[in-house]
Amino acid sequence: MTDFIQNCIDGVMIGSGYALLAIGFTVVFGVLRRLNLAYGPSIMLGAFVGALLYIQFQAQLFTVAIATVIVATLTGMYVERLCFWAIRRGAALASMVSSFAIWMQLEEMAVIILPERTYPFPALTDLAPIHIGPYFLRSEHLTMFVVAVLLVIVVHTVLYRTRFGLAVRAVSENPDAARYMGINIDAVMFWAFAMVSAIGGIAGFLILATDQQVTPYFGLWATFKGLIAMMLGGMGSLPGAILGGLILGIVETQSLWYLGNDYRDLSAYFLLFLVLIIRPGGIFGHALSERERAALRRV
Amino acid sequence: MMDEYVVSVISNMGMISFLALSAYMLLLTGEISFGQQAYFAISAYLSAMATAMWGWPLWAGLLLGAAAAAFAAGLIGVLTLRLRGLYFSIATLAFAEMVRLLFVNFHYQVMIDGEPVGPDGAEGFRDIRWIFEHNVSAFEYMAIILAVLTVVVTLFFIAERSRLGSIFRMLGEDPLLTELQGLNVIRYKVLASCLSGFIAGIGGAFYAHFATYLEPQIFNVMLGVHGLVYGLIGGLGTALGPLIGVALDIGFLEAVRAIQGYRMIVFGGLVAVLLIFMPRGILDEERVHWLRMTWRRWRNAAR
Asked: B278: distance to nearest CA of chain A, Å?
């Protein structure tokens, strides 16, 4: 039982990183109705620039964080202009494939910056683990979790308490209606994308600073962890993305502990597959409306 | 005789074309699959087991592998019937990663001539030696791959001009409308899934005997996404589209070795720009129609 609870604690901490990645996907998907495969690689490029500063100039943790977030955000803006803004609405498949092509581009850039397989990344904290009764908590995990919670509060405030957030939600709801209300859809999409890329940059920094290393596989890893967490919780919902991330974290740590390393990812994919087949809206997704259900029945 | 290197590049293009065609098949019916590499992998493993461990001839192993892939694809088709759009894509991704991770834990070996042969989990599956044992040269093997590819593409052409092709395209445009035509949507969706699995399976079986070595890591999501991308870049108007996509990527990348180290930067950018102007690929439906009309006019004028 102690092990189980300890795993849950670790899972929630790791899952908070997944949740941040999932928020990125959910917001972009809500606004654009398109999938950005280059999300993870944009973050990776930021992290590689951060790692370069760390290795070459012994940059401080804070400088590395700023560099990671800025480069990730700028890369995100580049992806938005090239793969989403320039390709007309309705061509969702072309946008996705285009973002994949840019993925290849970003990966090669990262490899040019730092050609080795792994690079060190500065540690988030060097504090000792915290003991609470029989359980203990790595201080990096706790830092990641706290920052993630703060970020979620910020994102929630932006989306529900500002005019920009109102515009984002209006565009998600119905782009045409939003346009008739005088909302500049292109600008909303661009800034939502930039915001999400910055969140991704912070998430990537936290995760990598916990692992203390960065590899070119991080792009693939971040894209698919974020996607899975989003789909588990339910597409297009903020609480869904957070819960999906936490559940993914817990399932991974539990199966790592009880089944072994070979079954960690297998269990996560198995759960995802089951959820999609049994409850396509995600565990916490909204129930389908009568009209949607009728359409699905016919098809 | 052709250069050994050229033969291996062309063989690679041929094998990956099967994967691209299978992704294209599903794109026609309006589904984006991230999981076609699973059928490629299932057939690669099964056909290699058949030839290397059970002593079957290549053609029998290939048929067995492709049939198993078609069966798996049919099963996934039935399970994912309710899913559309991104839900379908992620479900197929989850399935394909499950298949790959199961192969990581799959151990099944027999002793042949004092050597263990067979899949050994993450260590991979070595010594799939059928084409060496039967003295098939690299050139002959390439010719076999291209011959089968030609047959498959020809069948695609026939199918696209038939009722079945129209139904698949209609399904891609609007499943509800297809249903209103009195057609059994479920049956056609599952059929499309089975066919796409079979085509990917042919490629997988060829790949296993070409590479002589399989490891689960080869069949990761990158392989499937590449197949999907080839299907779109070439164009959704004709079955030649996926082949053009493959030729552009592999052919182009091999041709521009001069910019080694920067080629993905150049190529990735080119694809992104191409998609801005041609969001449904190079040979999309409109351009194919225009080409057909021009050809007909030219032929009539020549008469």
From this structure: 9
pLDDT at A296 over 70: no
Residue B199 maps to a domain: yes
Name which of A25-29, A110-114, B4-8, B248-252 the model is least confident about. B248-252
In a domain, B283, yes or no: no
Q: Using one digit for the tens of pLDDT, what is the confidence trace for A132-157?
A: 878 888 888 888 899 999 999 999 99
Residues of B in contact with A109 (CB under 8 A): 265
Task: Report the residue from B176, B222, B272 with minimal CB separation from A101.
Answer: B272
Give a yes or no: residue B288 inside a domain. Answer: no
The count of domains in chain B is: 1
Which of the residues in chain B have pLDDT under 70? 1-2, 256-261
Structural domain range at position B179: 4-229
Do B91 and A276 lie within an 8 Å CB cutoff? Answer: yes
Q: Pick from B87, B176, B268: which is nearest to A276 by CB?
A: B87
In chain A, what residues touch B89 (CB-CB under 8 Å)? Answer: 35
CATH 1.10.10 fits A2-298, yes or no: no
> Does A86 sit within 8 Å of B279, measured CB to CB?
no
Distance from CA of B293 to the nearest CA of A (A): 26
The Cα–Cα gap between A221 and A182 comes to 39
Question: In Å, how far is A92's CA from the nearest CA of chain B?
Answer: 9
Residue A293, pLDDT score: 46
Is B90 in Cβ contact with A231 (below 8 Å)? yes
pLDDT of A285 reads: 58
B270 lies in a domain?
Answer: no
The ipTM is 0.86
**Cβ–Cβ of B179/A298 closer than 8 Å?**
yes
